[in-house]
Design brief:
Length: 337
């Protein structure tokens, strides 16, 4: 029996024939990296191969590392195995990794979303025999509204707070969601202020693509200057001494989990906007169909439920355990919102 092209090991997803790992969670010699979130790109590997847009991001996060950047669809051959990076649409620079050997094709999707957000390179279905998929929102209850509709609600909330003399503090993760929101916000309502952690990442992303102007909040920023404006901040700022200078303020979170009743209450925010950088239920199913894959391996999220449904639909589907951190309703530190 032929050995699987990719295996799940205690270090990560391994291609034994090429001697490389995909998004390994323990230090290895050669790592192929899908994107810059901390659960997929970790410190300690001998070398990193990733899409060129992700190189500045992981260098910002990990420091001096040995990296090589490639273009979309550029074939890289290692010991006879061909690897290609294709857009995943999750965040800027996020990839799926296509692995091919002697006519057999696997695709590791990493994290992905099928709807375009105006910032990340849109998801591209890649034909394959075996597809490795995340299942973060792998329940029928999850169904996303168009981004434009969500942004209308955010703009209306911001405008109301502005009229009331309140600062609008919108929590978003420093890499990915914050830049997505920034690219879609209407700067005609007013200037946009940022927490230092988000602004540091904005400076990296601006070397890759244009973003609207923002104003970093420092110790010298007077509260009167920020009052009535919108502030992008990481979830970790909630309840911290930093946020007290925003008084009076309202808080909100942009996350797919805001679709769940009670999630806003558990995160102790005033408003919740349903906006995710992952696929909803229908997008997951449509994406899998588009690959033409017969075998599907389900990882982090609602993997058991989702794989069982796929089997009922005729797929050869199973689950595998990884150390990728699926976003949860209570999560405040997850790297991917």
């Amino acid at each position: 029996m032929r050995k699987p092209l990719l295996e799940f090991t205690d270090k990560g997803i391994y291609c034994a024939r090429a001697g490389v790992y995909l998004d390994p969670w323990k230090p290895v010699e050669k790592a192929l990296i899908t994107h810059g979130h901390s659960d997929h790109s970790r410190w300690g590997h001998g070398s990193y191969l990733t899409h060129r847009l992700n190189v500045p991001i992981i260098r910002h996060r990990l420091g001096e590392i040995k990296t090589q950047g490639v273009e979309w669809g550029e074939p890289i051959r290692i010991r006879g195995v061909e690897f290609c990076f294709h857009p995943a649409g999750h965040i800027i620079g996020s990839s799926q990794i296509r692995v091919a050997y002697k006519g057999e094709v696997w695709v590791f999707s990493g994290d992905y979303k099928a709807h375009a957000d105006g910032l990340a390179t849109p998801f591209e279905p890649v034909p394959c025999h075996t597809f490795i998929t995340e299942c973060t929102f792998g329940l029928p209850a999850f169904s996303w509204l168009p981004q434009a509709r969500v942004m209308e609600d955010i703009h209306a909330w911001w405008a109301r707070n502005r009229e009331a003399g309140k600062t609008s503090v919108l929590f978003a993760y420093s890499l990915g969601k914050a830049q997505r929101l920034l690219a879609a916000l209407d700067t005609g309502i007013g200037p946009i202020y940022t927490h230092g952690a988000i602004e540091n990442m904005n400076e990296v992303v601006r070397t890759l693509t244009p973003l609207p102007a923002t104003r970093r909040i420092t110790r010298e920023t007077p509260a009167s200057e920020v009052r009535g404006q919108l502030v992008l901040a990481p979830p970790s700022a909630h309840g911290s001494p930093w946020i007290r200078r925003m008084v009076p303020f309202e808080t909100a979170t942009a996350s797919g989990w805001m679709a769940f009743r009670g999630a806003r209450r558990r995160r102790a925010v005033d408003r919740g906007f349903v906006l995710s950088d992952h696929c909803d239920w229908e997008e997951l199913l449509a994406s899998i169909r588009a690959t033409g894959a017969e075998k599907v391996i389900c990882t982090h999220g609602y993997s058991d439920i989702f794989s069982r449904y796929l089997r009922e639909q005729g797929y050869d589907a199973r689950t595998e355990q990884t150390q990728y951190e699926a976003e949860t309703p209570e999560s405040e530190t997850s790297p991917e919102a």
